[in-house]
Design brief:
- Helix 9 crosses helix 11.
- The mean pLDDT is 90.
- With 264 residues, the chain is an alpha/beta fold.
- The protein is built from twelve helices and seven strands.
Length: 264
């Protein structure tokens, strides 16, 4: 079981989306990333601190951390494509070379950091609670733990089964499911008096792709979720106090609840 959890081939590969996104990172997108990070981690929480970004994706959050004054950022991801993309982005754009990026699973991590950051990642590991426990164990006393986890909704079990099927389906089946998913969204947006075409345009504006994002959502397996109460109770027992949160109410599909905890 441990080998399966740390084997990238048993996980859905998100790296292609991040690689595509990295090609159009510009000053405006960096500024947006800086602003988004500031909501999660005020500059005072980052300045002169050591940080580990678990599930580094494109490397853009790590870039914002360095721009906010982090002393050093360690980037890790189980997906080699993500790590390579993060290396390219940071080599080109980081204000100084105080970073590393390596292919590594959360289950294999050791060390201690002032800030442990993992946005939208630990619910894709195949053992979410153990992954959260492992990540929390890397936080120094008095340090900060920032994470984002899918909020638990009524359809989570359906999406878990769908994602397992999609991630293992032949490419032609995935394409058909992607078309159906897009068509259902078009009907939903029309019923709400909105435009799916406009939504797709906003994805492009943010540097993302509707097709890649939908592919990632449909195929994001392993998949788990949790309520805010479950997250807070789990980390409180491990010596953490919640200092901030931003939670959603899941409907047809879930979104990420964001949390910031301090280790007492």
């Amino acid at each position: 079981m441990q080998a399966e959890l740390t084997d990238a081939s048993t996980h859905f590969a998100f790296g292609k989306n991040w690689a595509a996104y990295s090609q159009i990172i510009d000053a405006d997108r960096i500024a947006r990333s800086d602003a988004d990070l500031a909501k999660l981690l005020p500059a005072a929480e980052l300045r002169d601190k050591t940080v580990i970004d678990i599930g580094c994706g494109s490397g853009l959050p790590a870039l914002s951390m360095l721009r906010s004054g982090a002393a050093h950022v360690t980037c890790v991801d189980i997906d080699p494509n993500s790590v390579n993309t993060a290396k390219q982005v940071l080599t080109k754009l980081a204000p100084r070379p105080d970073w590393t990026a390596n292919v590594e699973s959360v289950f294999d991590l050791t060390g201690a950091y002032d800030v442990v950051y993992s946005w939208g990642v630990l619910h894709h590991t195949g053992d979410m609670w153990r992954a959260i426990d492992k990540a929390a164990g890397l936080v120094k006393p008095g340090g900060t733990f920032v994470l984002a986890i899918y909020g638990k909704g009524k359809l989570c079990e359906f999406w878990k089964k769908e994602k397992r099927f999609y991630s293992r389906a032949p490419r032609v089946v995935q394409q058909l499911m992607l078309m159906a998913y897009t068509a259902l969204h078009a009907v939903w947006y029309t019923a709400k008096g909105k435009s799916l075409r406009k939504e797709m345009g906003e994805f492009r504006e943010r540097g993302m792709s509707w097709k890649y994002d939908a592919h990632d959502w449909l195929g994001g397996y392993p998949y788990e979720s949790a309520t805010p109460q479950e997250i807070e109770a789990f980390l409180t027992k491990r010596g953490f106090a919640q200092t901030w949160s931003n939670t959603i109410r899941p409907n047809l599909k879930s979104g990420c609840d964001e949390y910031r905890f301090r280790r007492i």
